[in-house]
Amino acid sequence: MTEEHLPDAAAVAGLAQEAVPGVCAADVRPIAEGGDHASWWVGPGHVARCALDAGGSERLRREVALRELVAERTGVPVPASVAGGDWVRGRAFTLDVRLDGVSAELRPVPDAGEADLARLLVSLAQVPVADAEALGVPPEAPRNLPGLLRRASAAAESVAARGEFDATWLPRLRVPGAEAATAPATLVHNDLKGEHLLVAEDGRISGVLDWTDAVTGDAAEDVAGLAISVGAVAAVRIATAAGFGHGGCARALQLARCDTLTLLSDRLRGLDDSPLPLLRAQLRRAWEPTSLDGPEAP
Known about the structure:
Radius of gyration: 20 Å
Order of helices and strands: HEEEHEEEHHHEEEEHHHH
Structural class: alpha+beta
Strand content: 15-25%
Helix content: 40-55%
Shape: globular
Number of strands: 10
Distance between the termini: 47 Å
């Protein structure tokens, strides 16, 4: 399914009004961030999403059930779907309630928000893996750190050569204790980027969006997401408050640092179309020096 086949604003307005008669759909605007679905603001109170293909449809339908499970068992603020169906045959459509707050890319996360994120990590660990997998959430094995390190080390050279990375930071790539860390599988959001975290005016986390990539697996992946979203120092602080030990925090930092290097390298080589300013900001955050870094890491 290509972008040319996506519905336009008028079609989305019609879908929303058919699904929920009386819904305000006079102002329908596309949302730039969409992943494997096209997202639209629908009036002041709703968000519509249209899956692009069969796989995206499966994930979107699964997300609706998963969000209900998460909200019920954890109290995490997630969007609620008010309607769903197909926008064309075999392509899923949902209409969700729009949550208050702005992206963590646009508003800092203070102490109150950090406490909310720590509770999020604790809550996800308390969701029975069997319950999540019964909804179709797939299990995912922990990523191989030696392989990630090899690719990230090569990426560091090319990124540094372009003036996009300070080579004196490289000792921070290997975080002591990261490769020995193990933990039982838990429910993992698996994409805790800044645009998926809504921050209210009082600094509280008012929404956690886009659960389509959720898996059961390595909880360090969510801490790694926080490292690129709110910074390595804050991520370690949040994870520690949530009960993560040294090994889990170290593994998360190493994952985040490998990812930010390889993603930026891919973008500079034309293999990715992510916004350069965002990738640069994520790299700076993930590479903040922390108490977990060895003494040789500047």
